[in-house]
Amino acid sequence: MLTVALFAPLLGALPLALNSRWSAAQARWIAVVASGASLLALALAWLTFDPAGPLFQHIDEVEWVPSLGMAYRVGVDGIALAVATMSAVLFVAAVVYPFDTGGDARQYYAWLLFLHGVSLGVFLALDLLMFYVCFDLTLVGMYFLIGRWGHGDPQLAAFKFFLYTFAGSLALLLGIIGLYLALETPTFDMRAIIEQQPLAGRGTYASLVFLAMMVGLAVKTPLVPVHTWLPQAHVDAPGPASAILAGVLLKMGTYGMIRLPLAMLGETFSRFALPVAVLALVAILYGALVALGQTNLKRRIAYTSINHMGYTVLGIAVAASLIGGHDEARRLALTGATVEMVAHGLITGSLFLISGSLWQRTGDYAMARYGGLARRAPQLTALTVLAAFASLGMPGLAGFVAEFQVFTGTFAVYPWLAVLGVLGIVITAALFLDLLWRLFFGRLPEHLAHFPDLNRIEIGVLGVLALGVVAIGVAPHFLLEVVEASASLLSGGR
Amino acid sequence: MPVADLTPELALLIGAVMIVLGAAFLPHARQGWLAGAALVTLTIALGAVVVQWPAAPSLTFSGVWILDAPASLAKLVILGSGALAMAMSPDWMRSDPRHGEYYALCLFALLGAVVMAAAGDSMELLLGVLLSSAASYPLVAYHRGFAPALEAGMKYFLIGALANALLCVGVVMLFGLVGDTDYRVLAAFLAQSDSLVLSVAVGCVILGLAFKLAAFPAHAWMPDVAQAAPAPVAAMLSVAPKVGAALALARLVALLPGEQGLWLVALVSAVTMTLGNLAALRQVDVRRLLGWSSVSQSGYALMAVAVIGRAEGAVSALLVFLVAYALANLAAFAVVTHLRGRTDLADYRGLARAQPLAAVVLIVAVLSLVGIPPLVGFFGKFLLFEATLAADHAWLAVVAALNTLVSLYYYLRVAAAMLFAPHQGEVSTLGRASWLAMLAGFVLLLAASLGVEGLFQEMSLWRAAPAG
């Protein structure tokens, strides 16, 4: 099933890239089918996932480079399954969402499908090297999407994005090799490495490997102070690509933190848990404060991503801390971090899709040039308000479930960090209310007098994403059950 | 005399002589046939290499000639790169009425590189370096009426003459000190004595090989050759002699006792890759850019040489990296050749629309040079990093990682120019043969990426039996 989920989009991308006869509409249909098949396969995997079973399930394995111990290995635990399914939903949304491809529809959809396939590869891989391969390939896909279909100064943004995150990748690669060299029998099988915990009690060497990995993943997440690539990449990327960037690519950093340092270097991570948690707190506060100061719509949403990913990293750091007697709190924090990933993907994904729609209509992101849209475009207003309230952590919506769990877990382990972190939520609330006020209330500027409301497809896509946000907020059980099983194995089982 | 051990080399030699004779007697209009003759020769030589593939390392011809798997693999790469260059050549040389000797010179240059890869004796090494150099100088300057080509040839010759003279001095000094040219005797002697003269002699030999590798401090010819030599020659000279010289250097460094030699190579490696990358950053000429990138790639290759004997995977890392580099570089130059040597970066703007296949090949080639997985270049770099980390040379791996990052800048500039810029103007291409050569380079690159396991299988057999 996972193999189908991974290869359906890649197989769809191939004919799109090669065949030049299809029209834009046909290309879009093929992309929707390939993307949808992948989502369907993941949904099936979810239904047959047994929360009481072993950590990794649905395993497929094919030899690739056995002399290095590398193989095509896929499998999921609850965390991977949740994040991968969210990613697939977001990819289908991005494919379906209307976008002006500038005459190159085939290539656009081919790149999007390629990105879909390799992104799932990151989340589904059970092989360390395959993880890295997919991790790097996502950069290539995103580079071409931003560079070709972006606006503003897309080539610079794409280049900066590639350079920064590739730097992170290389640090990650050095860390992976360091870990690999410490193994008794060389293998990249994640299950074997998690079982062996090869670097437990290895002092400086373990710290260096851990630092190399964390630097690599922190760039991708992004944590302050290595976040500076994010705003520009977001502002200049096309709307759907922005949604993917925020919703899927950023998760690779935090997902990687759970999969690699937390699971494989647990003992080392526990020594660094406090510094990482402090960094996460800085990201939370800094991201929120800088977002408040932005006048560009997309930049503001981009900085809230830094803030939200801070919550996730805080949860992961708490889960890694080995301060005795807090097993329950650590499990809660890890669950919260995962739910935050899913929630942020859906919420910020919709916010970026919405800003893409605004760009297609007006070609402008400056919030000062908007206002009073509530009366002209009620449906746009309703969906944006819902997403914004979810993002600021309104109870009953997905963001609240996640943040509540993260902060409850943190409070038990690092109480004063939790107290300071809650300030972040206050600032986020302020900045989203300000955003809504500027876009939708006040006086309608003259050039927006004929602003069209969302069309049916846009409403459909955003509606489905909003439904997911509400479902997680009201009845989170279906998600928590799957995630908690793995979270307790990872945080308590050590 | 076990003559059969030399079948590939003899085939090259005989083929080259026949081509010289043919060039003397064939009318100008038919000299293109000699490209076919060169290709046939190379095919025979390649077949002979495959047939004689050694199961265990052995020495032949009183110990001067090494037959082992690394040498055979290096021969395959050298001859294969020669074959691709030959396939690009007839279209390229069509405008030159007298180009029969060109093919003979190419074969001699390849023969020199093969000799370097298999040398187990310092005189043999000298022979290989000199043969390959002497045959390459006229090749670079083959466009006699093209001033930049003459300049490049002159530069190549001057640097080469100096480096080869130093190599000569080094080999003679070694002979004078040791009383033998055989590597085994040399190793035994080096293990006991530790004189300054000996260090100077070894330093001279390393410098001579650095010239063939286009490594610091004898690298300055590479960008000029890449820019002005006939494009097929640039493709060949940026690959074949480097493979031979890298393996020769690895064999030589493996003899040295102590750390000094290794540290010297590690420093040369770090300086070479940094210099090559920094110089490539500002290039606006694609061929020159590829030349500087080739300098930096030599620096990466030297990483493996610097940890030889200290990390068990060093030799296989070196060879996998060289194979990856050779394929990617050949594919890139094949594109340049197919586009009639189009060289200004501005002329590459929007090429993805006009010549999609050429653009794809070039993009895949540069991505492989960066080391983006799952292309074969990634596996080469991966093994290099692994070997250097295993030998506790983490600093070198970090320097290489930083350099890879820098290199991304100029490689992506080429890709971005082709993809993102609008297209204007006509794109003229060379011909069917160069198109086929480009496609063959591309297919080989992809096949190596997918079939990388086969390469590793071969390598894992050697770990039991180290080279040299």
Automatic annotation (TrEMBL), chain A:
Pfam families: Proton_antipo_M. One of its GO terms (molecular function) is oxidoreductase activity. It is a multi-pass membrane protein. The chain crosses the membrane at residues 29-49, 70-96, 108-126, 161-183, 204-223, 272-293, 305-325, 337-359, 380-402, 414-437, 457-480. It is found in: Endomembrane system; Membrane. Keywords: Membrane, Oxidoreductase, Transmembrane, Transmembrane helix. Residues 125-428 form the NADH:quinone oxidoreductase/Mrp antiporter transmembrane domain. Its main location: membrane. Belongs to the complex I subunit 4 family. This is NADH-quinone oxidoreductase subunit M. It comes from Billgrantia bachuensis.
From TrEMBL, chain B:
NDH-1 shuttles electrons from NADH, via FMN and iron-sulfur (Fe-S) centers, to quinones in the respiratory chain. The immediate electron acceptor for the enzyme in this species is believed to be ubiquinone. Couples the redox reaction to proton translocation (for every two electrons transferred, four hydrogen ions are translocated across the cytoplasmic membrane), and thus conserves the redox energy in a proton gradient. It catalyses: a quinone + NADH + 5 H(+)(in) = a quinol + NAD(+) + 4 H(+)(out). It comes from Billgrantia bachuensis. Keywords: Cell membrane, Membrane, NAD, Quinone, Translocase, Transmembrane, Transmembrane helix, Transport, Ubiquinone. Residues 119-404 form the NADH:quinone oxidoreductase/Mrp antiporter transmembrane domain. The keyword Transport applies. The keyword rRNA-binding does not apply. It holds the Pfam family Proton_antipo_M. It comes from the Bacteria. InterPro entries: NADH-Q_OxRdtase_suN/2, NADH_UbQ_OxRdtase_chain2, ND/Mrp_TM. This is NADH-quinone oxidoreductase subunit N. Belongs to the complex I subunit 2 family. It is a multi-pass membrane protein. Its EC number is 7.1.1.-. The chain crosses the membrane at residues 6-26, 33-53, 73-90, 102-119, 156-178, 198-221, 233-256, 262-282, 314-336, 357-382, 394-412, 433-452. NDH-1 is composed of 14 different subunits. Subunits NuoA, H, J, K, L, M, N constitute the membrane sector of the complex. It is found in: Cell membrane; Endomembrane system; Membrane.
